[in-house]
Amino acid sequence: MYVPRNPGLPPRALFTPPGGMSGALDCAGLLLFSKARMGIRYALSALGIGLGETVLAPAYLTGSALAPFDWAGVVCALYDVDRTTLAPDWGSVAGVQTRVKARALLLVHYFGLPCDGGIARAFCREHGLALIEDCAHALPPAPGEVGPGALGDAAIFSLRKLLPLPDGGALRLGSGTGAPACLPPRSDSPVSLAPLLARYVAQRLGMHRPSRAARPPLPVPDTRPEEPAVGISRWSRWLLSCLDAKAARRTRRENYRLLMQRVAGIPGLLPLFPELPDGACPQVLPVLVPAAEQVADSLAAMGVGAYRWPTLPPRCARASETARWLAGRLLALPVHQGLDPVHLEYTADCLERVLHAR
Ligand SMILES: Cc1ncc(COP(=O)(O)O)c(C=O)c1O
Q1: Can you tell me the distance from the alpha carbon of 172 to that of 156, in angstroms, rounded to the nearest whole number?
Q2: For 347, how many CA atoms within 13 A lie in the half-sphere containing its CB?
Q3: How far, in Å, from the CA of 189 to the mean position of ligand 1?
Q4: Relative to the CA of 130, which of 143, 213, 342, 357 has its CA 20 to 30 Å away?
Q5: For residue 76, what are the CA distances in angstroms to 10, 104, 194?
Q6: Mean pLDDT to the nearest integer, 273-291
Q7: What is the enclosing helix (H) or strand (E) of 78?
Q8: How many angstroms is it from 158 CA to the middle of ligand 1?
Q9: Residue 62 CB–ligand 1 contact under 6 Å
Q10: ∠350-351-354 over CA atoms, to 5°?
């Protein structure tokens, strides 16, 4: 059995006439980039935040989300999140803001599970901050749907994390923020679809790569080289009109609930979000386990693409004990639209075996 971390591309999607999918993602009002980090960089310019200014950002974060602030010369003042809800620790946010007088607050909706944007909005109003919603783990809500990304002065999404696309990030700017320009698309060839199709076939055949040998951890860089902004590739743009994002959202929700029921009672495992809020399109099911890295390695050997998140940049690790604590324990379990109940059952069985053996 193979339970990939992300969905493969079903070949039938290639035979769907563009625009023939009623559940396709509504991209109206979105500026499409190759990656979400480029959208963050663009949002900073659109909000007039630049060199030497400061943004409040959670210490529990990945390097690819911090990079665009570095590229713009913007300082990230790191605040803590709550260990059990991953919501901002508002005491920590207020304390940091008193020290640094930031221009904006970065609010992350981890794993597509929305945190309370209302509280964030009120905090930003009180302190004169712009609100940037990081919805990299969520799909943009369709008109009439609720979900993260509706309240911010800017909201970014990483479409390629939820849909089988070779690339894709998106930015929604709040009303009153300058209208975005059109970007040249990333150049690509149909070869960029091959890994996505191969993943689909491998899953169908139950073939997974032999697990990698345990390796010493690589040093994580604190900064990343600048990536100039490019638009989404033509292949991804085309696939966006052929893929059923509505059905993906529905299946992810069903899979989340099914897997939650199955893993909730496993000794040694603590689900972070037992309830799935209305409108949430989960990227994964996040759970806390002891030694998440080793558990993820054991699961990989069994063909289950669970992973520890994130690889914490050194500055985040230095800044926050909570971020270190979470990064060592959080395990992301796949619940994507390419999985059937049998894959979820297998994931839960493997997890039970691995945790029982520890
Ligand atoms: C919370 C968060 N924000 C932003 C990003 C950047 O997304 P992208 O890789 O599409 O640039 C990531 C990527 O992992 C992320 O996890």
Answers
A1: 6
A2: 33
A3: 24
A4: 143
A5: 40, 10, 37
A6: 95
A7: strand 75-79
A8: 6
A9: yes
A10: 85
Which atom of ligand 1 is closest in space to residue 158's alpha carbon? 10
Say what angle helices 90-100 and 117-127 make with each other, to 10 degrees: 20
Nearest atom of ligand 1 to the alpha carbon of 61: 1
Q: Is the CB of 232 under 6 A from ligand 1?
A: no
Question: Are 59 and 65 within 8 A, CB to CB?
Answer: no
Residue 162 · residue 154 · CB < 8 Å: no
Q: What is the mean pLDDT of residues 248-261?
A: 97
- CA–CA gap between residue 271 and residue 284 (Å, rounded): 12
Q: What is the mean pLDDT of the chain?
A: 92
Per-residue burial over 135-153, b = 16 or more CB atoms within 10 Å of its CB, e = otherwise: bbbbbbbeeeeebbbbbbb
pLDDT at 212: 63
Q: Give the pTM.
A: 0.95
The Cα–Cα gap between 74 and 53 comes to: 5
CA distance 209 to 262: 26
Residue 305 near residue 276, CB atoms below 8 Å: no
Q: What is the percentage of the chain residues whose pLDDT exceeds 90? A: 79
Distance, in Å, from the CA atom of 320 to the CA atom of 6, rounded to the nearest integer, reads 29
101-114 average pLDDT score: 97
Give which of 329, 323, 347, 342 is closest to 108, Cα–Cα: 323
For 159-209, how does the pLDDT look when each residue is reduced to its tens digit (9 = 90+)? 999 999 999 999 999 876 655 566 777 777 889 999 999 999 999 999 887
Structural domains of the chain in order of their starting residue, each with its CATH number: 11-173 (3.40.640.10)
Bridge pairing between strands 104-108 and 54-58:
parallel
Q: Using alpha carbons, list the distances in angstroms from residue 81 to 78, 93, 276.
A: 10, 9, 19
If pLDDT is split at 50, 70 and 90, which confidence band does 2 have?
very high
Which residue's structure tokens are 């803590």? 80
Alpha carbon distances (Å) from 191 to 162, 204, 255, 268 = 20, 21, 30, 43
Q: Which two tokens stand for residue 263?
A: 């893993």
What contacts 200, CB < 8 A, 6 or more positions away? Answer: 7, 8, 9, 10, 11, 164, 338
